[in-house]
Amino acid sequence: MTGALFDLRGRLAVVTGARRGIGLAIAEALAAAGADIFAVSAQLESQGSEVARRVQAHGRACEVRAVDLADRQAVKALAAELATSPVDILVNNAGTIARAPAAEHSDADWDHVLAVNLTSPFTLAREVGRQMLTRGHGKIIFTASLLSFQGGITVPGYTAAKSGVAGLTRALANEWAGRGVNVNAIVPGYIATDNTQALRDDPERNTAILGRIPAGRWGKPEDLAGVSVFLASAASDYVHGALIPVDGGWLGR
């Protein structure tokens, strides 16, 4: 019975930002649970990608698309393509960050961060979600952030976007929970990815961050595997509008 709750065989999962880091780990986890994967990332190789290799190693199919998620027309084209497929799971994971003091944070950085981290996830959720509502079932998973709850330092665009993701998760859940579509978010803590490389390279910031994490270490992308399968599966059918931290205890400190 327990295994059946987490069985994703016969499901199609779209994962954005799947080329590396958290997205790659989530795509592999969903494939290991039985899902076929439609992987999206800005610079995803059409042949020989790591995500395709890992997914296929689990005996699952993997389609890949290179899409600039800051390009609204490219996102709309992707959404139109996805509307023709029976997408069961949408993982809006792709993200970017720009670090600069607020007084020096440019309009270009602000627009780019908001486009990738908030506007494109909404567009994809709206278009794919419409098809899920018609079928009466589906799972949408956003990647939020600790900065959905906190202000952060020198990342005003990122904080604004991830705060928006938290609100969007709840707003869509309020509308769609009664129609068979689950909308939830994963809240990664400090995970060792490219987005956090600058923090890990700064001895002072690295020490301060590690000192506040009860688990005593940076997270790994693979630490997101279990919660992603849970939120994509029947095990979470009565979970709506939740933001689930995977942070080594940071928010409980």
Question: What does this entry look like structurally?
Answer:
The protein is α/β, with parallel strands linked by helices and 253 residues long. It has one domain: NAD(P)-binding Rossmann-like Domain (Rossmann fold), CATH 3.40.50.720. It is 43% helix and 15% strand. The protein has a seven-stranded parallel sheet, sandwiched between helices. Strand 1, helix 2 and strand 2 form a beta-alpha-beta unit. Helix 2 packs parallel to helix 3. The longest helix is centred in the middle third of the chain and has 29 residues. The mean pLDDT is 96.
Distance between the termini: 35 Å
Give the ordered list of helices and strands: HEHEHEHEHEHEHHHE
Provide the residue-averaged pLDDT.
Answer: 96
The level-1 CATH class? Alpha Beta
Structure classification: alpha/beta
Largest sheet: 7 strands, parallel
Low-confidence stretches: none
* CATH homologous superfamily caption: NAD(P)-binding Rossmann-like Domain
The domain count comes to: 1
Helical proportion, percent range = 40-55%
Give the overall form. Answer: globular
Number of DSSP strand runs: 7
Number of helices: 9
Estimate what percentage of residues fall within beta strands: 15-25%
Please tell me the CATH architecture by its name. Answer: 3-Layer(aba) Sandwich
CATH topology: Rossmann fold
Strand order of the largest sheet: 3-2-1-4-5-6-7
The radius of gyration computed from the alpha-carbon positions, rounded to a whole number of angstroms, is 17 Å
